[in-house]
């Protein structure tokens, strides 16, 4: 992971301001800072954010912001992407330990060997990967635009798709293309229980199942609609149905309930009796850590300039192909 940082000084609860929301708003003004938050963040962080979105939306916001400081309430690969796009801005992540199981499933040294074994292949990498993997890629994609991007590539061009095998399988089904898949996955999206979703359909026959394409194929087979987090939100808004089983990280349900308080949203259950449908990395960020990171202007995201420049090209190509 090409990040370096110093952790904020340990602060006692008694030293925190009484109103964290007001204190964060003040720091935003003082630092000319913008807070970008993923849909999977804690509801309090979503409520204080200047922009909430999925990976594609957050990438666009990071590319367009005129703020001096970017506070990225998400996981490390997202903050890395913001730094790749904004080398002269201060990019901070509330908790540097907020990693990503999917990104970790694709070690750069192993992927370099995999790529070298298939020199005729174009590399399309899901944005949920490290800066080092982005630097080895030809085009970056997100769950919002993966199908469209692959459809724009000549049909006779062989493609490596990394790191998520489930999104890759979904793209293959939607495009009719053969892709060489890296065998990576997300611990949250591979953990939903097909059996429990079927039981929910029996208990809530009027509900639609909406799912993220990172889910395992048995879960996707039961979905009435498959899409990115933003697409799931929009679909629920446009659907005539009043009840939904949501097969993705349940942080998105906060925005669904805010936008559609009259509708019912049921979080798809994991296989075990645990909170495994919540991303443990995303949930490391808290409102207190967000305040402290802004107050101390750290942990800061940095990376070698050669990696940043190499990773910038496939991201720019994605943004150009997604307009």
Keywords:
323 residues; alpha/beta; four-stranded parallel sheet; 15 helices; globular; disordered N terminus
How would you portray this structure in words?
- The chain is 41% helix and 15% strand.
- The protein is of the alpha/beta class.
- The radius of gyration is 20 Å and the shape is globular.
- Strands 2-1-3-4 form a four-stranded parallel β-sheet, with helices on both faces. Strands 6-5-7-8 form a four-stranded parallel β-sheet. Strands 10-9-11-12 form a four-stranded parallel β-sheet, sandwiched between helices.
Radius of gyration over all CA atoms, rounded: 20 Å
Content-based structural category:
alpha/beta
Taken as a percent bin, the fraction of beta residues is: 5-15%
Low-confidence stretches: 1-11
Helix run count: 15
Number of strands: 12
Helix proportion of residues, in percent? 40-55%
Write down the oligomeric state: single chain
Molecular shape: globular
State the distance separating the first and last CA atoms: 30 Å
**Largest β-sheet summary:** 4 strands, parallel
Query: Would you list the SSEs in sequence order as H and E?
Result: HEHEHEHEHHEHEHEHEHEHEHEHEHH
